[in-house]
Each structure stands twice: as C-alpha cells, then as structure tokens.
C-alpha cells in the first residue's frame, strides 16, 4: 500500500505519510470542517494524535487515508478517506483546501478512488455520508450514481447517506 500512486489528469494521490502532516494541518480550518462531524485540532500535537491513528489504520488495512496533490507542482490539495476498508461497503470521505473547492477536484478524486477500489476489492457499494446542505458534495455522489438511502443527525448538521455503486 505504501507505494501506491493514483493519478488523474490534474492530481496525484498517495497514501498518507507523516511528511504530509504539516501541509494538512496548515489547511484545516473551521470553514473546511463546517460539514464534517469532527472539529479542527487546535495544535499540531493534537493533529499528530489524529494522523498517528491514521497510520495504524493504514497498516492494518481497516482505513485508508490518501493525500492528494496537484500533479503539476505537488502542492497539497486535500485528503480522501476510505473507512471500513475491509468491508464490502467502505465509506468514502473527502476534504479539499479552500481555494481548490468548486473546481471539480472532489469529483475527480472520488472518481479515482472509486475506480481503484472497485478494481482492487470486492465492493457491493460505497457509503458516502454528506451534510444535507453541502450541495457540492451531494453532486459528487450523484455524479457516480449515488442514491440517498439514509438520513442521520449529528451535533453539527443533518446528513444524507448515499450508496454509490462500484465501477
């Protein structure tokens, strides 16, 4: 897994490594996490606790965390997660640095992960929870054939849960 690299027309995607942590932390903000169940870590040390957990999950295969970068200059673009990766219904999530939002990167990156995971694992469907108000993320799911199958509430927002078929 460590040597995996996926590419799209504009991006490169690799499994998270600790060297990515400063770029990720620098781009986490209340605005970025508005439609996420978690709150931004306040310090780099608090974020280190988070990413160390990612490394353990990547190691045992239970979760996959990827760092996306611009293909042309290697600048940090965002993070993609595939949770419950050992099941046939993994959950996808994504966040992008604020200036990259609204430019089609989310659709491009989720599409790359769906394609790779569909070819690499036995997937029944992907779970894709998204805040009801997050129209851009809802459009990503719908672009890949996602259908709302559930509604959830959490302390920050109400969400809909899409099922996206494998490719």
Give structural notes.
The radius of gyration is 15 Å and the shape is globular. The strands form two sheets. It has a five-stranded antiparallel sheet with strand order 1-2-3-4-5, with helices on both faces. A three-stranded antiparallel sheet has the order 6-8-7, with helices on one face. Helix content is 29%, strand content 29%. It has one domain: Gcn5-related N-acetyltransferase (GNAT) (Aminopeptidase), CATH 3.40.630. It has 167 residues and is of the alpha+beta class. The chain contains four helices and eight strands; from the N terminus they run ββααβββαβαββ. The mean pLDDT is 96.
Features:
8 strands, 167 residues, alpha+beta, three-stranded antiparallel β-sheet, 29% strand, Aminopeptidase, 29% helix, five-stranded antiparallel β-sheet
Write the layout of secondary structure elements.
Elements: E1 6-7, E2 11-15, H1 21-27, H2 44-60, E3 64-70, E4 76-83, E5 91-96, H3 105-120, E6 126-131, H4 135-143, E7 147-153, E8 158-164
Antiparallel strand pairs: 1-2, 2-3, 3-4, 4-5, 6-8, 7-8
Quick structural summary:
The protein is an alpha+beta fold. The chain has four helices and eight strands; from the N terminus they run ββααβββαβαββ.
Q: Structural class, please? A: alpha+beta
Q: CATH architecture, please? A: 3-Layer(aba) Sandwich
Strand content: 25-35%
Major sheet description: 5 strands, antiparallel
Radius of gyration, in Å, reads 15 Å
The strand order across the widest sheet is: 1-2-3-4-5
- Gross morphology is globular
Number of E strands: 8
Stated plainly, the CATH topology is called Aminopeptidase
Q: Secondary-structure element sequence?
A: EEHHEEEHEHEE
């Amino acid at each position: 897994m460590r040597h995996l690299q996926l590419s799209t027309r504009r991006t490169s995607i690799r499994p998270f490594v600790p060297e990515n942590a400063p770029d990720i932390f620098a781009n986490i903000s209340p605005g970025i996490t508005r439609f996420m169940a978690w709150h931004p870590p306040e310090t780099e040390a608090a974020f280190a606790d988070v990413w160390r957990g990612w490394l353990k999950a990547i190691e045992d295969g239970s979760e996959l965390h990827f760092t996306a970068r611009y293909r042309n200059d290697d600048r940090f673009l965002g993070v993609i997660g595939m949770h419950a990766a050992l099941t046939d219904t993994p959950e996808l999530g994504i966040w992008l640095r604020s200036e990259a939002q609204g430019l089609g990167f989310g659709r491009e990156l989720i599409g790359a992960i769906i394609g790779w995971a569909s070819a690499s694992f036995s997937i029944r469907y992907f779970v894709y929870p998204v805040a009801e108000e997050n129209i851009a993320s809802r459009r990503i799911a719908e672009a890949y054939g996602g259908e709302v199958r559930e509604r959830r509430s959490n302390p920050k927002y109400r969400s809909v849960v899409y099922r996206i078929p494998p490719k």
